[in-house]
Amino acid sequence: MASTVNAQDRTTATPRRSLRLWEVVAISVGFMGPVMAMSLNGIGVAGLVGSAVPFTFLVSFVGTMLVAYAFIRLTRTITHAGSVYALAGATLGPRAGFFGGFALLGTYLFFAACIAGACAVFFEAMVAELGIALPGWSWMLVPVVVAVLALLLNVRESTVTARTLLGIGFVGIAAMVVLSVVIIVRVAVGAAPVSTGVDLSVLLPGDAPVSAIMTAAVFGFLSWAGFESGTSLGEETRNPKRVVPIALLLAVVLAGAIYVLVMFAQTIGFGTDAAGVEAFSTASSTLTTLASTYIGPWFAVLISVLAFLVAFASLLSSTAAASRLLFALARDGFGPERFARLSPRTGVPVASTVFVVVLTVVLAVALGLFGATSVDAYYWYATIATLCMVVAYAMCSVGVIRHTFARGSRIPKWEAVIPVLGIAFLVYVYVIQIAGQVAPYTYFPWIAGAWCLIGLVIVLAKPALADRIGSRLTAEDLA
Hints:
Layout: H1 2-11, H2 21-32, H3 34-49, H4 53-74, H5 84-92, H6 94-129, H7 141-154, H8 158-188, H9 210-221, H10 240-270, H11 274-281, H12 286-294, H13 297-331, H14 350-369, H15 374-404, H16 417-434, H17 444-461, H18 463-472
């Protein structure tokens, strides 16, 4: 009987390859949550660089492309549900792979908790637009409800999750683009409540110092966080060594084009004078504010609803990515065997998905029980996740450098300069996240560092685990 069960486990150890190009793009874009990012991430940037917000996002786009290079290059030869875990493991060795994968697992788990908080933030904004007042503690119910919905979708076939993300993402992006076009047209024809016009100088650095632009570019970079999440579904993708790298490139470029357009519209929509910059940098949600001003309150309500749905889509994507990574780790011997099993009906790692969703709720609600707000949950967990993310991304960049100079590599040696610049950008991101901060943000580097250190201790203390990882990440992956 035992041998029969083991055989069944082996037959379900390989996920079904059902995802197509745009469905993988949807996973990555869904994690990034464009409407969520564009509602919040420009506010802090405007406070640092004034009207040079669009230019700053151009700089962030370049930095993201430098980091994305490693993922795009390596996924041409490696297909694995573990993302960084496999990409670093196959190039740097199994111990480095586990360390990078464990850091990425922290990224996904903390981001999922952060996004659960964001769902509450946008739900509160949505009901406020409808004129409904809620008690302060009620936000803790939102992560519970959205987590149940995310679980119901995530335990179904991966195509269901991807198509849900694609639908929500398309509608959200379409609404942002419509708003941006309306703003640009009204400002251009002089039918706007601002008199500074279509100021193309916002696409240049202007008077903003380089130090301010680079600091602000870090906040812009966070708008692309999770672009690599599509790699975690590589084993569920048709022709993954062709589709996944194209999907990652499309996700980063598509997001970049949308972000620069929307930030350009927002900047000129608020106005490029001192009053406009002040209004931009102090807005609670820039998209709803501008939607009400340029189209009408009804469109502000629509944007707030879409922002909530996009936050939910991002939760769906982050929990899906985390569950696949947890599945990959358990398959190689780290974690309960149950996490390495796939549903014979849907091909989804149900146990790991349930664990990730439950942990997400616990992390989000725990802060609320200690008096934190939904905004606190969003920013606090986002900071911890970002610090873990920098470590994971850097491991992948180091891996592609090592692979570039390995015998038989097909990558031109001169391309090594790209991931080197990417690592330099990541180091800068890390420094900005910890320098000059005040409590509780001074605690977060210690939390992220402790998480990554735990991963290092585990793999050093369990050499048999590294051996199992190495046996799966063979030279055939880099053929």
